[in-house]
Amino acid sequence: VTEQLLYEVTDPGAYLTPDVTLDMTGVAVDDLGGDRVRVSGARGAARPDQLKVSVGYRAGFRGEGEISYAGPGAVARARLAGEVVRARLGDAVGRLRVEVIGVDALSGGGEASGDAAARGGEPSECRLRVAGLAGDRSAAEAVAEEVAALYTSGPSGGGGMRVDTREVVGVLSTTIARADVETETVVFAAEEGA
Amino acid sequence: MSVRLYDVAHARTGDKGNLNTIALIPYDPAWYPALCEAATPERVADYLAERITGPVTVHRLDRLPALVLVCARACEDTVTTSLYLDTHGKTLGSVLLGMSLEPGPAPRPEPG
User: Fold this and answer.
1) Has the ipTM of the complex gone over 0.85?
2) CB within 8 Å: B80 and A97
3) pTM, whole model, 2 decimals?
């Protein structure tokens, strides 16, 4: 209940909703037993004059690629592959993120992945992920192409490559005066028997 | 072995734009003062520095009791424009639970 009460609350003293400004700094939750609780102590203030508006905008294209490496030296090969992609892309992509992930997708839970201590703590497998955001689609697609090229022109033994390029819609929030909002209701109804 | 936040509290992460909210709730209210002492803006920002670039604000809710930590990511790191796998930053609360109550050498995983 407490987790849900505070979820996505940025100011517990003045949580803005269209109908009330909520102050939950005095809220208490009491266990009444039998899976029941009492929530008390909430206070309200005048509703805000400004309403929140979320605005979508075209933020460019995100290109992503992933490829996995297993066995001795897997992490070193994944890191090297990431450096190769970063170097080859150069300044072609505005923002680029290179990271290494993974636990038991390739080697299973048996002897092949069993004793991390015997490997000096090194994972038995890992997965390189490269993600870039660019203004135009072709630059974003270059990220996918460079990761795909690792199959044949990268460090030894890469597998399970996946790539994806898609347009990104960003969202920014601002406010608008309540008095400036015009409301209209449109009902879309399916035809009988459709 | 030092006590981690994970040992005495649970967390729920929410997101708004480039902000993450982390509700930090002790299992036993007796641990609330220790949580207040440990979860300072500076320590939280430092522990989550891989992702949290802006200031951290701590709100106290003494009667629940619970803390709400408001953490700012980079302005371009929003749910739709982020390059992270976890675009919302939903996992940051769990990351924070790995922090030790006492400052100093903590069992913090090395960021990649």
Assistant:
1) no
2) no
3) 0.85
